Amino acid sequence: MDFFDVVTTQRAMRRLKPDPIPDAVLRQIMDAAICAPSGGNRQGWRFVVVRDPARRARLGELYREGWGELAKLPYYAGAATEPAGSPARKMVDSAAHLAEHMGEAPVIIVPCIELDPGIKPTVITGSSIYPAVQNIMLAARALGIGSCLTTIHRYREPQVKQLLGIPAEVETVALIPLGYPLGKFGRPPRRPVAEVAFADGWGRAFGA
User: What is the pLDDT of residues 51-65, one digit of tens each?
Assistant: First the structure.
């Protein structure tokens, strides 16, 4: 696919088929992941690719519990009361569907990052892992596979680590379900560039 077709049509796909993903396709996706940049080129990333049915099912249970907590927060609770078909309601309904069916995704990737002893994770930590996360999702899109980025598993991170044997000094930074989508790819609704990009200083309209 053309690069810009991939970038502009890669969107959160939360409704996925249970059909298996071929090993060769998964290898392509993971090879794209490790070509991403990382701080100091340290490549401290690690990826747990979960295909075992029992472990996927347990991840689904833990994820559902986490969603139950997140759904109580004002933003999500409010969105759930919006009229059916509204953007906010569609988003929360889609997220709730994923929470009910996470364990059915044929593959769940858990990106992780190793931290130096005594270092606490910060927003900057993501600079060494999220480019690889995006590469996973873009590569999946190019191959016709749906994905989405979520961190709701962090509500149950100790249990997730125990399930997957992840060491204490390693942070899990995302959960990415992969599967052939039930819906269609397409450009997601986004605010226009003119509203979010500034020229040479905050608040100065950007024009190309």
Answer: 999 999 999 999 999
**Looking at residue 208, what is its pLDDT?**
63
What pLDDT, on the 0 to 100 scale, is given for residue 117? 75
Contacts of 115 (CB under 8 A, 6+ apart): 44, 121, 125, 169, 170, 171
The pTM assigned to this predicted structure is 0.93
Calpha distance 33→26 (Å, rounded): 11
Q: Where are the domains of the chain?
A: 3-196
Instruction: Tell me the per-residue pLDDT of 139-164, one tens digit each, with 9 for 90 and over.
Output: 999 999 999 999 999 999 999 999 99
CA dist 155 and 134 (Å) reads 22
Identify the architecture of domain 3-196 in CATH: 3-Layer(aba) Sandwich (3.40)
**Helix ranges, 71-129 (H):** 74-79, 87-101
Give, for 177, the enclosing helix (H) or strand (E): strand 176-179
